[in-house]
Write a structure and sequence with these properties.
This protein is mostly helical. The chain has a domain at about 70-108. About 45% of the residues lie in helices and about 0% in strands. The protein has 4 helices and no strands. It has helices at about 10-20, 35-45, 75-85, 95-105. The longest helix has 15 residues, at about 75-85. The radius of gyration is 23 Å and the shape is elongated.
Length: about 110
């Protein structure tokens, strides 16, 4: 089975497609909505004025089933440390981080 996306240009085509679906020749699927996390990433990518705050980010459930990925003890420790730093307000704002990276790169 192959999935394709169709843009209907002529309104008559919509009824034709619906008839094909009624005859079980094709299946019409609704467009998938983005998850909250994907929308969050989009907001970051756009560098928009309403980018999420550091307080908003931990509220998103980003847990991946443990059967898919195995983390080393070191990785688990670093993730835990990062979460603690975020909870304690020890995170560095993006502007400061970019500035520090730019300064570091200019010395190389």
């Amino acid at each position: 089975m192959e999935t394709i996306q169709i843009e209907i240009v002529n309104p008559k085509a919509k009824s034709l497609i619906q008839n094909l679906a009624k005859m079980d020749i094709i299946r019409i699927m609704k467009e998938k909505t983005k998850s909250e996390f994907v929308e969050l990433l989009d907001r970051f990518r756009m560098h928009s004025e309403n980018a999420p705050s550091f307080e908003e980010i931990p509220s998103f459930d980003c847990n991946v089933p443990s059967t898919k990925y195995k983390l080393s003890d070191f990785q688990k420790e670093r993730i835990s440390l990062g979460r603690d730093q975020l909870k304690n307000g020890e995170a560095i704002p993006n502007d400061e981080l970019v500035s520090e990276i730019d300064q570091w790169l200019s010395t190389k």
